[in-house]
Amino acid sequence: MPQFLDTCDSGFEGAFAALLGMKREDSPDVDAVVASIIADVRARGDAAVIELTARFDRMDLEPARLAFSEAEIEAEIAKVSGEDRAALELAAARIRAYHARQMPEDARWEDASGAVLGWRWGPISSAGLYVPGGLASYPSSVLMNAIPAKVAGVERLVVVCPTPGGVVNPLVLLAARIAGVDAVYRIGGAQAIAALAYGTETIRPVDKITGPGNAYVAAAKRRVFGRVGIDMIAGPSEILVIADGDNDPDWIALDLLSQAEHDESAQSILVTPDAGFAQAVAEAVARRLETLERRAIAGASWRDFGAVIVTRDLDEAAALSNRVAPEHLELCVADPEALAAKITHAGAIFLGAWTPEAIGDYVGGPNHVLPTARSARFSSGLSVMDFLKRTTLARMTPSALRAIGPAAERLAISESLQAHGLSVRARLDRLNEG
Amino acid sequence: MPQFLDTCDSGFEGAFAALLGMKREDSPDVDAVVASIIADVRARGDAAVIELTARFDRMDLEPARLAFSEAEIEAEIAKVSGEDRAALELAAARIRAYHARQMPEDARWEDASGAVLGWRWGPISSAGLYVPGGLASYPSSVLMNAIPAKVAGVERLVVVCPTPGGVVNPLVLLAARIAGVDAVYRIGGAQAIAALAYGTETIRPVDKITGPGNAYVAAAKRRVFGRVGIDMIAGPSEILVIADGDNDPDWIALDLLSQAEHDESAQSILVTPDAGFAQAVAEAVARRLETLERRAIAGASWRDFGAVIVTRDLDEAAALSNRVAPEHLELCVADPEALAAKITHAGAIFLGAWTPEAIGDYVGGPNHVLPTARSARFSSGLSVMDFLKRTTLARMTPSALRAIGPAAERLAISESLQAHGLSVRARLDRLNEG
């Protein structure tokens, strides 16, 4: 059974704080192993990648087979049904349309001093996308990572995806094709991250790496950060549903379970001012759990990390949600817009009971790569911005320099940076001569 | 002497690649020490911070004295001259005006399916700014970090700044005051980062940490990344100047030296199509070096990492600059705008010879916290965006769900995420009943 909390109970604050502080993931300390894998790939390139792939993925490769060939890709995607292909294409079109609106604008203006200032956005040249193998090999994640990169204008976009025992998900290859990915390498783990960051004989290095992965992948991303850009270190994900009593308990139960079924360390929280409704949802969850294919995973998540919180009112629910800063937030209430205005921290908000979170995972349009583990307090979901960078621009005229140069010289001297001051002074002196 | 390269030489490509790959910084492996400092601060809070400060900064503190008192701040800033204060205020006003233009817009629209989509920006609630002590304690960096945070709307903004032996720079406190910083703690090192990330009895944790620091600070930021947001791991910085022969060699020499004087591992590169001018600049650098207070530092940087590259033309200069992806790029040419259009990777561009880089360090308006060590390939300078996060919004209507829900259900099933599919199906069934 999940935790049942009531904000009117005297022990509530302690119990809620414990819920917030709960460690949901054992991060094994794989840092030393990962460091040696990265060093090995840097030193020996393809040979190291191939050996590590043989060991971890039981796959014998050779350099020419690290990437899927055109013929292999064609053969795999031919297996995809027309319905699945149509669904992926609808998703891709909607994700593309949403992200196209995120393209930021350049700016340039002249200020009162006569200085021309501004900035300019440009795409990262190349990006690598990590796609997990096995059960968590989600074609939807390929779309969610690759499409923003292509919208941003990334020239070269490659995917790495381990294929343990040679098994590949045809939908992953189709999603890569639809999204415009240039190459797919059948490698994974820390060795794939190292290959993307440093390059090998056959794999050119990229400038940024995105995408989720296991503890080895996460540790490797943390290590190569700085050498290349990374998106974020993803943690176990969560949903928080704020619902009034005027909802179908079964819908809300399924929404909670759609998070729980991802992972035993996922977290689903219902917050409602209606104690009777809370009970009804808990019963619906129990009923639905019995029939779910992934009931072992979803059941463990709901039992260990699930919570049902009864509040005095919706305002209190919003305040609690802001302390959680959930990755996904459903507002299943009569006036979701009014409640949304009270939300300060959330990765994505789903407004109204007709918007189950699963819509956002696939076809809504917004990105499903979102800040987990309370990081919505300080970070955002993946977007076009993650594949762009900004260059600032400044141009002084002689009169602008005359106006603001002396202050720069003064500050340089106060910081004991003499050459800084002299570089301004030399120009001011020329103006004074003239 | 710095390296002299000529793109017409047969050995150029190898020499340039070596220049790009040059390791300019010895990062001592302080990770184990930092891990234990962080664990100590988490376990013992203020007591650990105070002990570590006594050990590393030769400062005896008690909890009530971790933060500067109002009276101490007033007494320190009273020491600042009127001219220095006016210069800081001019800088602050210009930085504020520039960054105010960076505030991104919210968006919301209805698409063809009837779905309402959009996003909303909001500030991070609290941020901590690391300011190094000693020589590199720059008031300008306080402004450059704190003002974007305040423009973004960060509610609580604190500074940590070590004061070894009790020595504090009054200008740092004044800059913090001008920028609207709420508290300044006289602590530094990994212990200060740990205190900001996890909190102590007297220091409330923050959601994001920005600002430069030494190897311990950098390692600590890397470790707490995820628990809190961080800005970037700063490396040794660099300037690249593209200049035609129609420049005063002395100005360009001073611009190169204003980078070199920062740090022995800083890098200054001149790229010019005019071999005679290249020679004249090298001579001017040598001449200016003799009289600089920081000639030991600047001289070592110029000798070990400086480079003068003669190219066939300006187009080739731009192409080389793009491979360097310099933090600072000066375009001292007749038509800097035309050349800027060919630049794909640079942190900040300074257009024309009247715009020495030092203007950007202090009073230009754009941020001087910029991507170093070639990371302009994938990242941007500090901005208001670093203190904001975006929440995506989606709202389905029944008819929108009818239009796109089946595709979501299909993809959920293909990913073996049954509850995801059922959460959509339950709603579609209701619509079909109705």
Q: How would you summarize this macromolecular structure in one to three sentences?
A:
Chains A, B: InterPro entries: Ald_DH/histidinol_DH, Histidinol_DH_CS, Histidinol_DH_monofunct, Hstdl_DH. Chain A has 434 residues and is an alpha/beta fold. Chain A has helices spanning 12-21, 31-44, 46-57, 70-77, 82-100, 139-152, 170-179, 189-198, 215-224, 249-260, 275-291, 295-305, 314-324, 336-340, 357-362, 398-414, 418-433; strands at residues 3-6, 107-110, 116-123, 126-130, 156-160, 183-185, 208-210, 229-230, 238-243, 267-272, 307-310, 328-332, 348-351, 388-395.
Describe the structure.
Two copies of one chain form a homodimer. The first copy, chain A, is of the alpha/beta class and 434 residues long. Chain A has three domains: 31-74 and 105-230, 3-Layer(aba) Sandwich (Rossmann fold); 237-378, 3-Layer(aba) Sandwich (Rossmann fold); 396-433, no CATH class. Chain A has 17 helices and 14 strands. In chain A, strands 1-11-10-9-12-13 form a six-stranded parallel sheet, with helices on both faces. Chain A has a five-stranded parallel sheet with strand order 6-5-4-7-8, with helices on both faces. In chain A, strand 7 (208-210), helix 9 and strand 8 form a beta-alpha-beta unit. At the A-B interface, helix 5, strand 3, helix 10, strand 13 and helix 15 of A face helix 5, strand 3, helix 10, strand 13 and helix 15 of B. Strand 14 (388-395) of chain A pairs parallel with strand 13 (348-351) of chain B.
